[in-house]
Design goal:
Elements (H helix, E strand, L loop, with lengths): L8 H14 L1 H19 L5 H27 L6 H26 L6 H15 L8 E3 L5 E3 L5 H24 L5 H19 L9 H41 L2 H17 L1 H23 L4 E2 H19 L3 E7 L5 E2 L4 H13 L7 E9 L3 E8 L18 H14 L2 E6 L5 E8 H4 L3
Parallel strand pairs: 4-6
Antiparallel strand pairs: 1-2, 3-5, 6-7, 7-9, 8-9
Helix pairs in contact: 1-3, 2-3, 2-8, 3-4, 3-8, 4-5, 4-6, 5-6, 6-7, 7-8, 8-10, 9-10, 10-11, 11-12
Length: 438
């Protein structure tokens, strides 16, 4: 760094430019802030309020970088002691304010009045340096001395950091997401930088370690906001898919028909009506549980859900619906609400599609050397899969959702084999290495 005496403001500007061009770290910090500012300006995905807060943080950080450079220069200019005092007051006042702005990013709907009061108190304490040594003072030989209240900024910043950590941990527990580690590690980086500044007497750059750390934290927080947006967008898509599954799985005609059967049984066979009511309640409960599940479930649970559905249909169709089971393996997992919609299609379009409205559905499961296979077959009228529209009744939204969830959650596949007059067989294939039940 340049250490010669400078006698004028113009020379100070020259000194600043020389330091800026000669120090790669400072150039990097400024370029990062400029690029981050431009990126935030054109980013359409973060909230407008958060965007304004980030821009304010960037502006304050840039002023701190400039302040650090001039403060370093003023250390070698005893006659500039008042200017160094003013810059020190500014630095002490701005640090808690930046941390408060970070709190507004993680809790944008809160006013944080208590923290704002603490920030104002901190600024007032250090303004006393203009006429009192209670916070700090700089002697005429340009030596810095901390006063009795010299650690006010540290204490208030520590309080704000603790509150910020509370906000982050609360959000992490609620969302259970790994990206919450980013702001937590950023807080640790700030604490580490403070420790370095307090115990490092000499360094080859005019910037404080805290300034460098906050530059990195601003970048990390922006990355965190984008990861959060992606997660929220995925959750919205998942919720929309779950609603589609719900509407495809709990068809109004099925509810109406099941309740009609139960109503009739109340007059003809009350005991059977009670059994049907229990089965119906279990079916609805498993459907709701399946909509909330985000991980694969054991095949045995999905099979039980399918049995509950079929028991209701058999009460309705009696001997017109025959169900055969060939279950040779159950030690694997699959997405919830996977088997039941396939079987429902087989009953609705296979069995009921026959001229007499009767038929047979076969459910089989077996293990091969590399995968697990589930096959749902019916002896209905069949169809030509190549000519079947994707949005037709035979291939409704439930089948598409099953195929998508199999691919995403289990790397599984769904294949349909059918021909006019030859029935239909749906095969689900699940790789063994990912879906074995431990």
């Amino acid at each position: 760094m340049l250490t010669h005496n400078v006698a004028s403001f113009e020379e100070a500007v020259i000194y600043f430019n020389a330091s800026l061009l000669g120090d790669g770290v400072m150039v990097t910090m400024l370029l990062q802030m400029v690029l981050l500012f431009l990126t935030v300006c054109i980013d359409p995905y973060i909230l407008k309020k958060q965007k304004r807060i980030i821009m304010a943080i960037i502006a304050l950080i840039v002023t701190l970088i400039v302040s650090d450079v001039f403060s370093t220069w003023l250390e070698d200019q005893p006659e500039r002691m008042p200017a160094r005092t003013i810059l020190s007051i500014y630095n002490y006042a701005v640090w808690p304010l930046i941390l408060l702005l970070f709190c507004h990013i993680f809790a944008p709907n809160r006013k944080h009045l208590v923290l704002l009061i603490l920030v104002a108190i901190n600024a007032a304490v250090f303004l006393t340096a203009l006429f009192s040594p209670v916070a700090f003072y700089i002697t005429y030989d340009n030596k810095y001395h901390r006063g009795p209240l010299g650690y006010t900024a540290h204490i208030i910043s520590g309080i704000i950091l603790a509150y910020l950590l509370y906000l982050i941990i609360r959000e992490a527990r609620r969302m259970r997401r790994k990206e919450s580690l980013i702001p937590i590690l950023s807080i640790l980086l700030i604490l580490f930088a403070v420790e370095l500044d307090e115990n490092t007497w000499k360094k080859n750059i005019p910037l404080s370690y805290l300034t460098i750390a906050v530059v990195s934290c601003a970048l990390f927080v922006y990355i965190y906001l984008h990861l959060k947006f992606v997660r929220d967008h995925e959750d919205a898509l998942m919720m929309n898919q779950q609603l589609q599954i719900m509407f495809s799985q709990i068809q109004p005609h099925f509810l109406y028909n099941s309740l009609t059967v139960i109503q009739e049984l109340c007059h003809t066979d009350p005991a059977q009506a009670e059994t049907a009511t229990i089965q119906f309640a279990k079916y609805l409960r498993r459907n709701m549980d399946g909509l909330q599940a985000k991980t694969p479930i054991p095949f045995s649970e999905e099979l039980e859900h399918t049995r509950e559905y079929l028991s209701l249909e058999q009460m309705r169709f009696e001997d017109k619906l025959t169900v055969q089971y060939d279950i040779r393996c159950e030690s694997f997992t699959l997405p919830p609400l996977t088997l039941q919609p396939i079987v429902e299609n087989a009953v609705r379009h296979g069995v009921r599609g026959n001229s007499e409205g009767r038929g047979e559905v076969t459910i089989s499961a077996r293990e091969t050397p590399g995968c697990y296979e589930i096959v749902v077959a019916d002896n209905g009228p069949g169809f030509n899969p190549e000519e079947q529209p994707e949005n037709s009744g035979r291939s409704h939204i439930g089948i598409r959702n099953v195929r998508e969830r199999l691919a995403v959650m289990c790397d599984g596949e769904l294949a349909i084999q059918s021909a006019p007059g030859a029935g239909t067989a749906v095969t689900i294939t699940l790789p063994k290495e990912k879906n074995a039940l431990c």
